Amino acid sequence: GSVSDMLSRPKPWSKLTQKGREPFIRMQLWLNGELGQGVLPVQGQQQGPVLHSVTSLQDPLQQGCVSSESTPKTSASCSPAPESPMSSSESVKSLTELVQQPCPPIEASKDGKPPEPSDPPASDSQPATPLPLSGHSALSIQELVAMSPELDTYGITKRVKEVLTDNNLGQRLFGETILGLTQGSVSDLLARPKPWHKLSLKGREPFVRMQLWLNDPNNVEKLMDMKRMEKKAYMKRRHSSVSDSQPCEPPSVGTEYSQGASPQPQHQLKKPRVVLAPEEKEALKRAYQQKPYPSPKTIEDLATQLNLKTSTVINWFHNYRSRIRRELFIEEIQAGSQGQAGASDSPSARSGRAAPSSEGDSCDGVEATEGPGSADTEEPKSQGEAEREEAPRPAEQTEPPPSGTPGPDDARDDDHEGGPAEGPGPLSSPATATATAAPAAPEDAATSAAAAPGEGPAARSSAPPPSSSSSSSSSAPRRPSSLQSLFGLPEAAGARDSRDNPLRKKKAANLNSIIHRLEKAASREEPIEWEF
DNA sequence: TTGCAGTCAATATC
DNA sequence: GATATTGACTGCAA
After folding, report:
1. Residue A289 CA to nucleotide C5 C1', Å?
2. Which residues bind DNA (predicted)?
């Protein structure tokens, strides 16, 4: 009955749960001839002949660092964990193993040729990107991902960073040959990996690829080879182009990659990249603080006031929200590890509000999320801001607007025809102020607060924290076997602590004052609602 | 339609 | 030159 149903009404892949995908993977394997004629275990029966026999195979994914939730953490969590309790279905795991030989991820084909550089991009757009694995089966990466146990994304990226830096391998090369991603994406991924459970299937792909790569004993060697070949090719091209007196196309960034079909698109005038001025960003951030989910009208107002396209404003909000969210993930992780070390705030407590530490900056997101309370970067005004904002709408402001789950309701703009824009609000000022160079009168705390940070070096010295913290950790101790060593590197934690303490104090003070005000407000207005 | 995830690719920064 | 940042885009889901 199930089979009939499945065959006649298959659900789209994306709608299937991991479990639900299992039969399709089996079918695919069967179609590929991978499963032979062995008797597959049905449902609860774990080990049919075929699967049973393969459980002894090495599972490259399992070799890697499987995250704590899924693996009984032993001191050497990177060792194969055949007994992992993780999988809801052992059989899937077995399939994973079946599919995953210790495979060299780099070499694409047996013909000795390295994967054609153009491969990754080309195949990338395909629905089922074939892994550049010479490995055993033609299983697509998606299938591997679907079957993969939970991976420790932080551990993986950390190790990858280590390997890359230790061997002087670039992100671009790694990204393009191993992950099929561009340098920027790789950088982002390595610096701010999301936890496995927050990743979509697609988002897990690169991590699976990384894990496979890490498990490849010849990974570095192969990448080195690639590097050499790239260099050779580049030299060749240069020479030939020089001798041919070619107008020497710029040493294409992607080297031999890409350019699949785009030597000419250069002609069609490219849209110049929009670069938002600091003041504009400040204004947007302030708008965000008020309404992380501005209404179309607000967006339009914003766009008008800042003289930007509405799409730019929309994009900015999307990007900002999602980047803040990512920062928060990291904060949570870091906080978690810190918490273990005896840090004060519990992760659960912080997950609600913005995580304090990455001190806003690169993650001004965090700062923004935290709203006025965050203080870190703008301590001086934070009080004022807090006053201005907390008092009127305590609930909204204390709450972490965006955080993991967009709690649109609390901050969404919808109605308020006036929206945040009503009143000059935070938005209007900077733009106009910039224009006039003379920041309008102290319209409100927020405005002035934003104006200042715009120029103040203190606020501007934002970028480093999160990434630097992560990178610092990358140079820290090795052996990312256990969760602690992955996330809570003693050194790193120590460094953080010493650096954060003053900030923490400030924050604590700030929070206290906010709480205090909230309580006051609560006692005045709606005591019941504030019961919590 | 809206929001999000993931990514690209231009640009900034180191 | 390598890496980080970020505006824009695509595809998907609710």
Report:
1. 21
2. 269-328
